[in-house]
Amino acid sequence: MKDELFKHKLAYFVLLIGILIFIFLFLGAWPDRWIQRMVVVGMSTYYFLWGMLTHFKTRTITRSVMWEYGMVSLLACVLLLLITV
Amino acid sequence: MSVFAVLKHLFHPQRSNNHRPRILHSRSYPYLALIALGFFGLLNSSLIKFDKFGYVLGFASSITTSQVVELTNAERAKVGLLPLEMNSKLSSAALAKGQDMLTDQYWAHIAPDGKEPWSFIKESGYTYKVAGENLARDFYSTGDMVAAWMNSPTHKANIVNNNYKEIGIAVIDGTLLGHETTLVVQMFGTQPTPTQVAQVSPKGTQVVAEVPEAETISLTKPEPTPNLVQFIELAQPTTISQPAVLASVLVPSGSLTLPPLFSVLQLTKAFFLAMIIMIVLTLVYDAFVIGHYKTARLVGKNLAHILFFTAVGFLLIFFKGGIVG
Asked: Which residues are paired to B174 by β-bridges?
């Protein structure tokens, strides 16, 4: 995992910054649940696109990889949307 | 297949699961989402009766009217405004509004039958030149609730409005839209001063409100038709600073017990968090095993998934409940 991190420092830095921004937006939007839901959808989409882009750049993108990122994003989205109901 | 073999198939990378724990396969995530949906649906459905679970599942808040007034005045003091005084008539109006919401099962400033907050204020006998209303539900503490109001521009505008002189609060426990909750109704008002009342002609023309229409927010309304009758009511002595109206729900003798251990939100968060922890630990274990055996795979990045799910777990932990209206 350490090798992977150092090999793709920039990609992980972008991911970390994006996630931190979405965390800040989600907590800052309280108590407006509609905005929180928008942030959740935004964060899930961002993660999916990040996965596609990084795998595309390393030429390791396949249908199963796309599905994996899509399903991970979907699960996260469902969990966070449910608590804001 | 033994239980151990099933667990190994689910959590350990091996030939049977194509060297990736089954729980981390892309086809497993929708099942996990369905389990989460099922759990949430079950908890929030009418299949679960709160009274059957006794003291385990329910909703309990520590909100008190005195704390609401104290914290509201603290927020006003921060911007140099005078504190609001508790008015028993406004509290009665707030209580009537809260009871109406619980009886008719709605969550809005205007009732389904079109009844506006000002009607409750008038019915309580409070004469106002300007009035406003804030609502809140599902909060566990007064501090969180007032913080949520202050985070919402329209509610904040009511709290730090210099035109209000008095406040009325009702904190009501009950079941709203299928959820056990604590409902808080905060009403603001200012009674016409004698000078303004003197402007009322014997013929009963309108008093000019001190607050221009443009300055009032949607939840604030100047008194449309004050008249001589209202002046007479105003002239009568009124009780000010009456202690809180606490609850509208009568607690039967002997049933006053400890608050429930978990609320629906807490239980939901705990369940979802357990799912996240299970996935993250499996991802860490998978990365360790695959790194150790140097197996080549074309899958998503475990480190990225760990980061993402950790963020989701963080949001689950720090998500605060409560709705303002």
From this structure: B181
Q: Which residues of B270-309 are buried (b: 16+ CB within 10 A; e: fewer)?
A: ebbbebbeebbebbebbbeebeeeeeeeebbbbbbbbbbb
Question: What are the helix (H) ranges across B105-246?
Answer: 117-123, 142-151, 153-159, 194-198, 228-235
- CB-based contact B190:B168 (threshold 8 Å): no
Peptide bond preceding B224 in cis form (omega within 30 of 0): no
Searching chain A, which residue's CA lies closest to the CA of residue B139?
A: A31
Top-ranked range on mean pLDDT: pick from A7-11, B73-77, B243-247:
B73-77
For B316, name the nearest residue in chain A, comparing CA atoms only: A80
By Cβ distance, the residue of B275, B311, B323 closest to A23 is B311
The per-residue pLDDT for range B230-274, each reduced to its tens digit, is 322 333 333 333 333 333 444 444 444 566 677 888 899 999 999
Q: Which of B311, B319, B323 faces A83 most closely, judged by CB atoms?
A: B319
B90-101 per-position pLDDT tens digit: 999 999 999 999
Element spanning B236, H or E = none
For residue B131 the two structure tokens come to 């009035």
Q: A5 vs B319: CB contact, 8 Å cut-off?
A: no
CB pairs A-B closer than 8 Å = 112
CB B187, CB B133: distance < 8 Å = yes
Predicted ipTM of the assembly: 0.96
B108/A34 Cα distance (integer angstroms): 16
- Of B17, B29, B34, B137, which to mutate for an interface test with A (greatest number of A Cβ within 10 Å)? B29
How far from the centroid of its chain's Cα atoms is residue A57's Cα?
A: 17
Picking from A33, A77, A79, A82 by the largest number of B CB atoms within 10 A of its own CB, the best residue to mutate is A79
A41–chain B nearest CA distance, Å = 12
Residue of B155, B308, B309, B316 to mutate, interface with A, max A Cβ within 10 Å:
B308
Judge if pTM exceeds 0.90: no
Place of tokens 């001589």: B228
Taken in order A21, A23, A24, A25, is the CA torsion positive or negative? positive
Please tell me the distance from the alpha carbon of residue B303 to that of residue B301, in angstroms, as a whole number: 6
